Amino acid sequence: MITPDWVRLMAAYNAEMNRRLYAAADGLTSAQRSEDRGAFFGSVQGTLSHLLWGDRTWMSRFDGWEKPAGGIPTSPGLYADWDALKAARIEVDAGIEAWARRVTPDWLGGDLSWFSGALGQEVSRPMAVLVTHFFNHQTHHRGQAHALLTGFGARTGDTDLPFILPPDVLAAG
């Protein structure tokens, strides 16, 4: 289904898009970043906080990271301080890229079992499907954050994978 090279490509895309979103959000005021705009997670900051919570949750399953506090309902408030959220995002993206460099075909071919707090039960799924979901979840919520940012007039630049990553990264994917 997917390969280690695809995982590395998506990790690079994730990190670059996060750099672009956070740079655009830096141009907003604190009040704008925290303003509830009716999005699923309310605000730009709430959406980005949930996304970071989700990444850390999946990486706790994939790579043994410490599981973040709380659950989906509290995830928008996990990072109330903008500078702390930005620093954590940079650290997590570097960790995701490091993990992606270690992913092997055998690991992707396995299954993962965990207790899902959202479903309230033990779940087991193919690792390749879960990694695909992990990257889709990022893209989905970054799209929401992008819409919120553009609503304030902020610009992220291009968001299309084939046009923002260097050719050597694209060739490896």
From TrEMBL:
Gene3D superfamilies: dinb family like domain
Name of this chain's protein: Damage-inducible protein DinB
Species: Falsiroseomonas bella
PANTHER family per UniProt: PROTEIN DINB, SLR1116 PROTEIN
Family the entry assigns: Belongs to the DinB family.
Keyword Signal tagged: no
Keyword Zinc annotated: no
Alphabetized InterPro entries for the sequence: DinB, DinB/YfiT-like
Gene Ontology molecular functions: metal ion binding
